[in-house]
Amino acid sequence: MVVYDIKPWDDETDMKAMEQCVRAIEQDGLLWGTSKLVAIGYGIKKLQISAVVEDDKVSTDELAERITEEVSDHVQSVDINNFSKI
């Protein structure tokens, strides 16, 4: 399981739309889990979302890049917050 921290461009970013765009990313071996908004300062919140990934099918780094590229209107950066093998 991987927990991603997805940071928006600013405090005016539509976080619901951003989450919908992230969840719209589909790939064999990828299952999106729970999410929450976490305050990071100056009125800005980041999206913290978990994902279950199969090692053989999904690269966590490539998925982070894909989120950044495909949701670039909303996303400034993506970081891995937590990574654990199940």
Automatic annotation (TrEMBL):
Keywords: Elongation factor, Protein biosynthesis. It comes from the Eukaryota. GO terms for molecular function: guanyl-nucleotide exchange factor activity; translation elongation factor activity. Residues 1-86 form the Translation elongation factor EF1B beta/delta subunit guanine nucleotide exchange domain. InterPro entries: eEF-1beta-like_sf, EF1B_bsu/dsu, EF1B_bsu/dsu_GNE, Transl_elong_EF1B/ribsomal_bS6. The keyword Protein biosynthesis applies. This is Elongation factor 1-beta. One of its GO terms (cellular component) is cytosol. Belongs to the EF-1-beta/EF-1-delta family.
